[in-house]
Amino acid sequence: MPEAGTVTKVFARPRSLTDKHFTYCPGCDHGLLTRIIAGAIDKLGVQERTVIIAPVGCAVFAYEWFRCDGIQAAHGRAVAVATGLKRANPHLIVISYQGDGDLAAIGTAETVHAANRGEAVTVIFVNNQIYGMTGGQMAPTTLAGQRATSCPEGRDVRTMGYPLPVAEMIATLAAPAYVTRQSLHDPRHVAQATKAVEKALRYQVEGVGYSLVEVLATCPTGWKMPPAVAHQHVADVATGTFPLGDLVDRG
Amino acid sequence: MPNGKVVVDRERCKGCGLCVGVCPFGVLELSATYNSSGYPVVAVAHPEKCTGCALCALTCPDVALEVYRERAVAGPKVGSSAESPTEHR
Amino acid sequence: MADRQLMTGNEAMAEGAIRAGCRAYFGYPITPQNEILEYMAVHLPKVGGAFLQAESEVAAINMCYGAAAAGVRTMTSSSSPGVSLKMEGISYLAGADLPCVILNVARGGPGLGNIAPAQGDYFQATKGGGHGDYRLIVLAPSTAQEAAELAGLAFDLSDQYRVPALILADGMLGQMMEPVALPAQRDPASLPPKPWALTGAKGREPNYIASFALDPTVLRDLNLRRQARYREIEAREVRWEETATEDAEVLLVAYGTMGRIAKTVVRRGRDEGVKVGLLRPITLWPFPYAPLRALAERVRAVLTVELSAGQMWEDVRLAVEGRCPTPFYGEMGGVVPTPSEILREVKRHA
Hints:
By secondary structure, chain A is α/β, with parallel strands linked by helices. Chain A has helices at about 30-45, 80-90, 100-105, 110-115, 155-160, 165-170, 185-205, 220-225, 225-240; strands at about 5-10, 50-55, 70, 95-100, 120-125, 180-185, 210-215, 245-250. The termini of chain A are far apart. Chains A and B meet through strand 1, helix 1, helix 7 and helix 9 of A and helix 1, helix 2, strand 4 and strand 5 of B.
């Protein structure tokens, strides 16, 4: 019996992360989501059979941050690469990590058809409503009226279209096992998003099928907001266009 | 209330301040010191207030924080004994 | 399955691939290569392989990128417009040093063109096609038999050098039926291991596959290592066939379907006493520069015949380097010249 108190580590770096430093800007939710995914890999004990697919965009280095096999995909094609990996070796646990430009603009066809086939992979969709890597251009998910470098007067939905409701679109399909939209704007939502990522990954491990976890994330640099203000913006504004919650759960 | 301890990895911290905002007890503050990447680093300004709730670490985008918690079971309180912690599973 | 079968060039390539251990195929319908997709749909699942009709050629080549990364012998097939769509993915395969076999059953172009045989994709196949400094191993069969054999060779070379291999056929070869003595079945488990493949980081450090390197010196060094492999391929893997070249005065150079027609020209020409020979490149890259240069020393003319405006012709002239005249005869748009027309052209230079 210990003399004094029992010291426990209540928060440790997930084992499935490498020691590399993230290349994201200060306060960017990409890093937080990366940590959540690594934690889910740890929890399910699948680090030795997981392949991470990095997109083109700010997460282009994602394959280097996981202590898992990794591959970098062409812009928009990550889930097609995931399809090839999973079909060639169904034992692999395949995670396709994609941003909004990648998944919802240039890769829309791949996104829809992989979901429609119910590919047994996990798609993590980072919806931060902007092209971060290229300097803050309008994304398919940019909010109505939101300014970006390629819509300096704000997104005019009459000529530039509406923010694309990806989770809702994918939820109309028959094949997906789990479709959800989560957010990271406060600790309670971080905890919920963590559970959602774990469920999506568990569904792949158990062979339930395809999952899409859309995550509302911040881009403090592109939005020109301090990180805490950006989180408040997600809570107050972005969730109005992109409501949170599970849309499909066939588990 | 349990005692906690938060450890900052100065080289990972980018000084975004999200942890400062979510800490319910005012443990953390942005410091005026910088790491080798030129980021201002968060400081554990009031360690005695930490309960080990880990909200700061749950929020940190750079996994720069580790949190330990000591639960007093018997005998005198030990302020900081996180040098060889056992991992929580 | 009997080892000798009557089959189209398309089917021969598909069966040759399966027998070489291909266990993942991703394709999209386009004429005149649909029989490959359909053959794979029937026969690949029987050997435990993964077949999938993709939503586009773009998706198909990126599925190949994933399956190739998993260490499985992987193939896609298409025809000219579809191969154009695959070019970005092929550049990524080359940049990530992934083996993969791509079949182009070429048709008339540019644009939608038509579905008749053509050789207008030579530049695309041999000079890069996609972005960046890369090469494909390019093989050009002229019979269904050779198509089946080159499918196997394409996988072997692609694996050995970690360079994607492309088989450049055309609609005539793809659709033509011939008896084919099929190569032996190979067990994928007996193939050389791929320690770089993404199989899960169990008992080893993680493997990463990417064509990406932000540091210019790192990317340069990756390119230099790749270029060194290309030089090795050029030194070792040039393949060609010579017909009646010993005393030839006019040397035909033609590949694929045109190479086959040129053989008929040589036979008829010889019957008429015309000293005509043929060099038929089997590897379009690496191109048989050295053997062509040697022959150019002793002939009156090197006549290039292509179903294009003269694309391989540029490599022929690079090989000959002015040693003799290098006339060109070609057709485009899916028109195929007859042996008589070509023989008439040969006689003009004899």
